[in-house]
Each structure stands twice: as C-alpha cells, then as structure tokens.
Amino acid sequence: MGIGNQGSPYLGTALPLALVAAKYDFPNVYIISNENGGDEQYFGSARQSNELDIMNYLGKQLDLNSIIRYSSLEAMKPIALKEVIVYDTDYNFFNALWKWFKYAGTEGTLIHVVSPFYMMREYFAANFKRKTLLYSNNEYDAIIPNDIVLKRTLLASILASLADVGMTEDELMDISKKYKWDYIDVAKLLQDAILTVRGNEEFHTIYEHFIFDEEKFFEENKFIHRTRIKLADRNLIAQQKNQISQARMSFRDNEYMDLQILSGNIWNYYLPGQVVGFNRNYYTIKSLDLKEGIVHTQVTNPISIPDYFEISDYQLSNYQLVDGCVDSSIIDYNIYEATATKMIYGYISTNNGNDFSKENHPNVNSINNSATKNQTITINKVPVLEMNFLRASFGTLDEKQQEKVISLLCVLLKGLLKTLFPKTYPNIAVVPDFKFDSELIDHVMHHAFDYPEEDMIKATIPRIMVDGTKCDSRFIRMYIIEFSCIEYGMVKSIYDNRLAIFTKIYDYLDWYIASNEVNVENNKAFLFKVNIYIME
Fold first, then answer.
1. Whether the Cβ atoms of residue 133 and residue 94 lie closer than 8 Å to each other
2. Which residue, among 343, 352, 304, has the nearest Cα to 459 in the 3D structure?
3. Most CB within 10 Å of its CB: which of 136, 287, 479, 522?
C-alpha cells in the first residue's frame, strides 16, 4: 500500500483492510474492537503518524471518521452495504464468521476475519466449504465455554477478596447479578467458590470455611444492618491467597487495570520483553511480580507484533494416582495429581508464525538475569494425564523414530488445544517423556543462529523429569499437565474427549499431507498410528 516504512508504528491488519474498502467506495466500514489490540484509540495515533501516506494511497479526500467506525451496535444494523472487520479471538474463525453472518446488510456485506497465527487456521481456510463448520456449536467449539472459564476465574478471585477484607452479602449478590449467574442465595455462591479452588475435595458446610460478622451503623441518617463475610480457612488462606487473586497490569504512574486471569498464572500468559495488546492499546512487559500478581508494563507504539514461543521444561514430584482410567489395548491412560515445577528459560519471537528459518530472522529472548538461571514456578496438586503408548504398536519404527512420532503428536495436540481451550490454553502443557537437554537449551538460548531450524523447534517442545516413577520399557510416554493455580478441568476434558481429539488430529494431518510437499511415506505411517489410536 506504500504506507509507512520500517520504523513506522504498527498499523495492524484491520486498519489497512478498512482503508482499502474506503478507497473503493464502501460507505460503511466497521472494525469490531479487539480486547487484545487495536481500536479507535490506537488506530487514531497510527493514522496520524502515517496521515500523508494514507492520503496518497486513497487518492482523494475522504472523511475517514464517518466511514470507518468502531461500534458493534452500529455494525449490527441492517444497512444496505457494509464491510465488517472482526477479530478471531477464540482461534476459530468459523465462529467469528457465524457471529456476524446474521447481521448482513440488505444489499451485501463483506466480512473480514483477522486471525492470529494458530495451527488450525490454514486448515479452517482450506475447509471453508464444509458447511457444518459454519454452524453455531460446530465440532471445533471450545470444550470449556468461555463463560465457564471466566466464572471459575472470578469465583477464585472472590475467594481471595474474602480472605482479605471480606465482602458483604449484597456485594456478592451484585457480582452474581452483574455476570448473570443464577445464584438465588449467597450460600451456593460461596460453596462454588470453595469447590473452584479445592476441586473434588469433600465439602460439608460453608460454616467450616467462612465467618459471618454482623455490622450495624448509621450512615446518612440511616441505620444500616448488613452481614460481612470473611474467609476463615487458615490453610486455604496460607496456600492460595496470593495465587487466586485477580492479576493486574500496571502502567503509567501507578495506574492499574484488572486482568481476567489469576495472579498465580501470570507467567503462563506473559514474559518480560513481550509486546501485548490490552484495553485498546499496546504495552511492553517490563517485569512480572508473582507475589503481588502484577504485570508491570510500559505503553508502546510497536512496529510489529511478533508471535511468541516459550522455551521451558517441567518437573513433577509427589506423584499420586487419582484415576486409573479406562485403557485401550495400546494406550494406558492414568490421571495423577502432582507438584509441578516449571522452568522458563525464555522464548523465540518471530513475525511469521512458527517459521524459525534464518530468512525469517527469529529472535531468541532470554529472561535470565544475573541472579537466576531461569524463572521457576511451583504449583501443588496439579492434574496430570499420563499417556503410555505401546511401543509394539509402532511396527517397524525404531526408538528414535518412535520419539519423533511422540514429539510430533505433542506439537499437534498443543496446537489443537489452542482452539479447543481458547481462554485457558496457556495453562496446559503437552510434554513427551524425554530427559532434559541442557546442551540444546544452552546453545539455542545463546547461539541460536548457529543452530539449525530443527533444533529451535525442538527447544520449544518441553521436556520433563518425574521423581519416583519409571516408565515400563514396553511403552513410550507423554504427559498433559494442567499447570494452573486452580483446576479448570482441562485434563479431565481431554481424557473424556480423547476419541474426538485424536480424530481431529488425524483429519488435520490427512489434509496437511495432501496439501504440502512432505515425506508422504513417513507421515502416512504416522497417520496409520493415529488411526489405530482412534479405533482403539
């Protein structure tokens, strides 16, 4: 388009699309604001920085403020002709399309979906004609709905507030009303808050966990009588208070914004040096305070928004069996509870998805400082799904080839989970049972450009050390770890939906092999193995 240069502020994707529509006389263009990035406020500053280039591109005088609008309510009106630009925030652009098809204009509507990088994106685009994917509740819908995720997060943060200064009965019921929860009394809300943090532990009565103080006072010539509720469970306060409070983002001069994630999970979502979009602007993360649950940031005008790929490993201890599960003849499933430790070394950033080729200039970003080798976070009572694959089912593949198959399965499963758990996927790890490779990590972190692309990919696949367990030599093992300060139910959902998940992986691979120049024989063999897992 000839707008801006290498040093110009990031224009994003939505604004250039809107400018093209305006140039070719679309009378109404709507950009539906995205919680993770640009909107009217940010685009306004980006437009000002490139105003001359934009005017040259348009080739005529246009009142862009009257053509390009940012109101979702206006976009829903059945006007004659319009373009609607929406963001694929749930990593499922069929759902993004579905939400806006019903608001089409009377003469015609052009809907553009701005999708970030995620594994299923090209698959969805290639299978656009499969009409079933365009229906609401399609087969790739989130397994745990977003409203359930938000509810569990807020219930946990309510518990943290009750551990601090407490809340009145009216304040709690106001929250229930605000989020359209169906509580008719505060007792059930408090019970659900406890169960959100305590999981499947036995629950008897709310009076074991809370105290109810009667408050009486005069205010504005009125006699006020209310009940203040406080968390009295000392073990819960000691173990969870810092983790289950709602995280906050700091910016400017001690200004704060609430994040819809919990304090104990902030290292799963953000790392120092990353550029993130939030509340209609962009920020650079300066540091993270896990104890206080604060993400310290600085407002920025980036020239690009990279994709980020974490480099980390895991360690499990206090490994206790919860459910032996129902096995197949070739896969042994077990659900455990464990103390999990995550070691974060850094991340790879790239402006072209997971293309780590030298031509794409990937950057390796260390989060180490002079005091520590890596960032370490430990969470107790983490759900773990252990999957043991019978080596004999791999046929003639040797041990190294079997390890490649398991690595590929881990990558594919993690990529699919981004679509199936769009709000909580940063808290899930898919890890092959491979020993730590400190030499690989050290060389990638410090000499990335001397290493081949394959090794950079390997570095983004976590490895693991499990205390007190040893894998039967007849099997090769992988783990799915729900690394979160509260349990969202992802591990159990993955086990319950394992057949559908393996089927989706098979469909994706089948499409990928047919659409790309790959080693057909090796990948056909892998397809055959996945198909066996489905049938079993």
1. yes
2. 343
3. 479
Task: Please give the residue range of the domain that contains residue 502.
Answer: 307-535
Q: What is the pLDDT of residue 8?
A: 67
Nearest by Cα to 424 from 146, 137, 197, 36: 146
Where is the domain boundary, 134, 157, 182?
Answer: 134
**H or E, element range at 465:** strand 464-466
The total number of structural domains that make up the chain:
4
Q: List the CATH number of the domain containing 275.
A: 2.30.30
pLDDT of residue 370: 46
The answer as to whether 390 is a domain residue is yes
Q: What is the pLDDT of residue 412?
A: 94
- Assess whether 152 and 104 both reside in one domain: no
How far apart (Å, rounded) are the C-alpha atoms in residues 129 and 315? 44
Contact call for residues 317 and 378 (beta carbons, < 8 A): no
Are both 293 and 315 inside the same structural domain? Answer: no
| Two structure tokens written together for 324 | 């032996």
Residues 450, 328, single domain; the answer is: yes
Q: Which amino acid is at 293?
A: G
Token pair 């809370």 is found at 210
Q: Alpha helix locations (H) across 217-335? A: 234-244, 266-269
Strands 294-299 and 307-323: unpaired
Do residues 503 and 497 make contact, with C-beta atoms less than 8 angstroms apart?
no
SS3 71: coil
Which residues touch 182 (CB under 8 Å, ≥6 apart)? none
Amino acid at 206: I
Antiparallel, parallel or unpaired: β 108-114 and 81-87: parallel
Which own/partner contact pairs does 403-408 have at CB distance under 8 Å and 24+ positions apart? Answer: 403/432, 403/434, 403/476, 405/526, 405/529, 406/432, 406/476, 406/478, 407/432, 407/434, 407/458, 407/461, 408/526
**Does an H or E element contain 55, and which?**
helix 51-58
pLDDT for res 32: 87
Name the domain boundary from 71, 101, 134: 134
Please, how many CA atoms are within 13 Å of residue 267, restricted to the half-sphere of its CB? 24
Q: What residues of the chain score a pLDDT lower than 70?
A: 1-9, 35-47, 49, 130-138, 199-203, 220-221, 238-243, 369-373, 448-451, 517-536
Q: Can you tell me the distance from the alpha carbon of 294 to that of 297, in angstroms, rounded to the nearest whole number? A: 9
Tokens 């934009």 sit on residue = 54
Q: What's the CA gap between 170 and 176, in Å, rounded? A: 10
Long-range contacts, 258-263 (Cβ 8 Å, 24+): 259/295, 260/150, 260/153, 261/153, 262/153, 262/156, 262/157, 262/293, 262/484, 262/485, 262/486, 263/160, 263/290, 263/292, 263/293, 263/485
Q: Could you tell me which of 139, 141, 142 has the C-alpha nearest to residue 150? A: 142
User: Does 378 fall in a domain?
Assistant: yes
**Which of left, alpha, beta for 438 (phi over 0: left; psi -120 to 50: alpha)?**
alpha
> Residue with structure tokens 């009303």?
177
| Spatial distance between the Cα atoms of 305 and 351, rounded to a whole number of angstroms | 7
pLDDT at res. 431: 96
Decide: 30 and 69 in contact? Cβ < 8 Å: yes
